[in-house]
């Protein structure tokens, strides 16, 4: 059994992890992860207003700041379109196109959401198409524009011409801009195709699967699995962000219409509540506490040094210093937690034992169970927190004790060597 585990770890560290790191760094893949990171400030801006609205519900005299949500969180689709094309040009080395490709993508996205312009020049379109529901559409628009700009950019049109540089620059921009916009005009207005609805329909199976228990568990497990290999969960932003954003947007709309929230796969349920990610991705808080009382001097010191970040659900210090990353004894319980935690939360919320979040507050550094109560608006979150805390502790304990024994033996050996010297 030990030999099998050793071979498995050798394959993970020397083959699988390096291959995935190279894959994640490929321009077309890195583009999406980078673009999603760039729009996080706009998501957090909307989160701050939702948090403010919680306070405002108790102090009605405070001013209404809902318009800030509409033009931050409510513009995520549009912002995504710009950032995907912008980051693609940066990753592909076409730095002269970063702005023009991004702006072209904005124009294309606006056409994709199928606006109506009447004879008097009045522009009308469903405002919700600009927001989180449109993230997938923004990604598609950004990639299509990027493919065209990349194709033209590689050919360096008129680069050997004797014309002034600014004229050559115009031509090199006009060709891809004209192609992108012309193609979109033909599809949307000439063929009268609602690309927004079509794209959402094509991606609906992915969105739908993400809101099922298997999809929910799989996504969190994958993020955690790769994290234990030293690969940041940001790699999965392009997958989780559209699912999570559409999920919370639908929950907000449902509650405003007097209906119950139904989508559990949201950033709020996974990160903000601090239940699945108690101490950080992989639920490392109880590991941290075990380390604080360890018989190993090294583990005790590390545990106490990293406890405060863990309380605020920041676990990079313990993941890389314990270490959990590439440590088979601690990787396995991390994987188990990433399966058990989502299942418990799914059963709790679907079974009516805990409210499903219906406010967009994506601040994952609020300590649980304070954040758990705040985001679910349900004091029963305390009981769920206690149950999961004990469950995570039971999962970590046997693996930790084996690791602790190894560390104590290493420390004793080092002490003997120091004495002999």
* Distance N to C terminus: 37 Å
Helix fraction, binned, reads 55-70%
Total beta strands: 2
- Largest beta sheet: strand ordering: 1-2
Which regions contain 5 or more consecutive residues with pLDDT less than 50? Answer: none
User: What form results from the Cα inertia axes?
Assistant: globular
What class, by secondary structure content?
mainly alpha
Strand content: under 5%
Number of folding domains? 2
Rg to the nearest angstrom? Answer: 25 Å
Largest sheet: 2 strands, antiparallel
Order of helices and strands: HHHHHHEEHHHHHHHHHHHH
Assembly annotation: single chain
Q: Can you count the helices?
A: 18
| Overall pLDDT metric | 90
């Amino acid at each position: 059994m030990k030999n099998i585990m050793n071979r498995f770890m050798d394959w993970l560290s020397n083959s699988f992890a390096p291959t995935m790191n190279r894959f994640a760094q490929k321009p077309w893949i890195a583009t999406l992860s980078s673009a999603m990171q760039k729009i996080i400030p706009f998501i957090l801006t909307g989160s701050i207003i939702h948090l403010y609205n919680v306070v405002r519900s108790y102090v009605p005299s405070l001013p209404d700041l809902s318009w800030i949500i509409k033009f931050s969180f409510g513009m995520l689709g549009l912002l995504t379109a710009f950032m995907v094309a912008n980051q693609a040009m940066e990753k592909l080395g076409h730095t002269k196109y970063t702005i023009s490709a991004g702006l072209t993508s904005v124009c294309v996205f606006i056409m994709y959401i199928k606006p109506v312009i009447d004879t008097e020049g009045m522009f009308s379109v469903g405002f919700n198409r600009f927001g989180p529901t449109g993230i997938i559409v923004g990604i598609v628009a950004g990639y299509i524009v990027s493919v065209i700009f990349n194709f033209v950019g590689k050919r360096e049109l008129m680069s050997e011409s004797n014309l002034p540089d600014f004229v050559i620059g115009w031509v090199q921009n006009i060709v891809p801009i004209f192609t992108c916009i012309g193609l979109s005009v033909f599809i949307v207005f000439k063929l009268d195709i609602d690309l927004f609805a079509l794209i959402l329909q094509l991606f609906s199976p992915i969105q739908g699967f993400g809101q099922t228990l298997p999809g929910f568990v799989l996504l969190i497990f994958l993020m955690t699995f790769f994290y234990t290999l030293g690969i940041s969960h940001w790699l999965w932003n392009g997958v989780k962000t559209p699912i999570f954003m559409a999920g919370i947007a639908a929950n907000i709309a449902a509650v405003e219409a007097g209906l119950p929230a139904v989508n559990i796969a949201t950033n709020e349920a996974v990160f903000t509540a601090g239940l699945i990610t108690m101490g950080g991705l992989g639920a490392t808080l109880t590991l941290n506490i075990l380390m604080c009382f360890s018989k190993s001097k090294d583990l005790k010191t590390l545990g106490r040094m990293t406890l405060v970040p863990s309380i605020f659900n920041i676990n990079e210090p313990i993941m890389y210093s314990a270490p959990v990353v590439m440590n088979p004894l601690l990787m396995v319980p991390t994987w188990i937690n990433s399966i058990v935690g989502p299942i418990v939360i799914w059963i709790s919320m679907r079974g009516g034992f805990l409210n499903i979040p219906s406010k967009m507050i994506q601040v994952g550094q609020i300590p649980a169970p304070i954040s758990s109560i705040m985001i679910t608006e349900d004091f029963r979150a305390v009981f769920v927190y206690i149950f999961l805390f004990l469950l995570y502790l039971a999962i970590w304990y046997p693996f930790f004790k084996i690791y602790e024994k190894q560390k104590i033996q290493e420390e004793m050996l080092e002490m003997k060597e120091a004495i002999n010297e």
